Amino acid sequence: MFTGIDEVDWASLRHAYGSAEDVPGWLRALASTDPAERATALDGIYSTVHHQGRVYDSTLACVPFLFRLAAREEVRDRGAVLELLVSIGAQSEDRDGRAREAVCAGAEGFVALTGDPDPAVRAAAAGALVRFLDRPARALRVLGRRLRAERDDHVLLALTETLGLFVRRYPAHADGAVDLLAEQSAAPYAPGLRLAALGQLALGAPDRLPADLVPTAVRLLRERSAHRLRETRPAGSDTLVGRIRRLRPSDEEGSHLLRTLHLALGDRTDDRSALLAGQLTSPDPVDRCNAVWMAAALLRGWRGEHTGSVQLLGAQLPTEHDRLREGAVSVLAELFLLAAPAADDLHALVAARPDLWTHRWERCSPILGSPLKALARSGDPRAVPALAQLLAGPAAPADLGFELAQLGRAAAPLAPALRHRLGRIPLASPSAARLAAPLLSAVRAVGDREAVPEVLRLLSGAPGDLGARDTVAQEAIRTLEALGAASRAAPLLHALLRTRHAATAAGALWSAEGDTATVLPVLLDQLRQADPANRRIAARQLGRLGPAARAALPELRRAVASAPVRERTTAACAVWQIDADPEPVLPVLRAAWTETPRTRGPIARCLTGMGPAAAPLRDLVAAELAAPRRHTAREGGCGGTHDIPEDEALLRTCREVLARL
Questions:
Q1: Which of 537, 539, 571, 576 is nearest to 557 (CA)?
Q2: Taking a C-beta distance cutoff of 8 angstroms, is the pair 205, 183 a contact?
Q3: pTM score, two decimals?
Q4: What is the arithmetic mean of pLDDT over 563-573?
Q5: Residue 584 has what pLDDT?
Q6: CB atoms within 10 A of CB 189
């Protein structure tokens, strides 16, 4: 296995962390009889020689020895060694062709390994065969023979996925593989294998799917789950292990099968919603738990009529399965107003479980618990009594104000408590801004003018030499302006014209006094500052001045021509508000809308103000309303806290734009 390994000058070769002199030790350890030693060696190779998919000279030097290890039956964990080889060849394909060439050179070895006694080796070898054997017809013949002979369920699933990979990789040779997948998708094959075949057909040959795809998939899922439960149910279900399994259900294979099908269905949101309905009504809580996370991906990435899915998420809350309940609540908390169809279930959980009103990570301050957070974000006023109790307590969650703000005027009964908490913020404390920002957000949402003295205290009372006043100034100015009370802070605002909050203070002064001579020079100066955030604020404030800010047009037009996209968009909207000439502005807005989806919200708001002058961009707005995917959707399905409400706000604004046209 290791003939010639000492003849390689490993010390002169490199990996991610320097000299590769430690690599031969890891290669030898892969053949160890000690499982811990093998695992450590595999981790070492992945983290250095194959770090983040990069190719080093030591990576290429390892490949022949990995092939030898994979071919020796006495070596344990050869499936993991094969997976490492596949990863080296596949992940580096787009970065450095040398590693792929090295693996392809030994690809004939994968043919023999598809019949290896070790199921893990057979499974890994099948995928390697399709990726690296540059003879697709031969690869398909080998897969077909293996499929007929294989008896291990996990290897059969791997072969099915490999056939799907073959269809996508070699479309000119795909007919035979598609026929095999279609055969596997029907009786008498096992439910899991049929689900896997349907997922691969959906990815590569959707025209071969059955017309009743969703009902068929749901039926197969339930048949598979019933079989899995019979196989895995412990003899004594009231044991500690049994209770843990009930509280933390898991089925990675089933999750993978359904995720593949959802991925393949893509923009077919009606079918995906119907599939989710089948998953979320399954008798098996494990299926429902998997479905919750697939619902998260659908709701986060796609628009549509989601009422039914949201109601079914709410139906998961009264359960003894902690993981299922926690998952459903977590997804509902992302939905904000879209969670309204589940509000009754959220309220029932909040009422029944006060212990879930807050959550505390180790050594951290408490935060608002997900059930109460989701109920508040849905806009349901039934969240108010619980929030009131927390506000009145000694340790209210620091983020409570942000969530309370989602209730708007429905949270008006909490205004006195908000004022009380604002008044207790220690002005000289470094935590003043962290404590004040959520509460000020809530005051703005409630519209509590009686809180003006407390806001003025935050703005004026902190000692300037500690920087505490500066940390809360932005939020305090915004709050005073929102409450129509900026005139009461005029002296302070004038003083802030000489600080980094000059643009925000100038805007507030303009709303209070309308004194162009005072604020225009300040805003022009801010347009020339190095901080792009300040430049954007200044441009927005200049737009509010309208024609009175004509002196700013040359500087704004320079920004429109050459600034980064977010700044360019803000400047273009300001130019329109000041000059009312759409011709130089609309091409800039069109380009930004197309190139940078995150600019669409501000652009749509600008188009609303333009009225009929926005007609040349009607096609963008109409296309946005017709698009199935959210403009905030991210690769992999992950997202930010406000992605869904931001997208829903864009849709509402787009409808308003069309109405005004």
A1: 571
A2: no
A3: 0.89
A4: 96
A5: 93
A6: 17
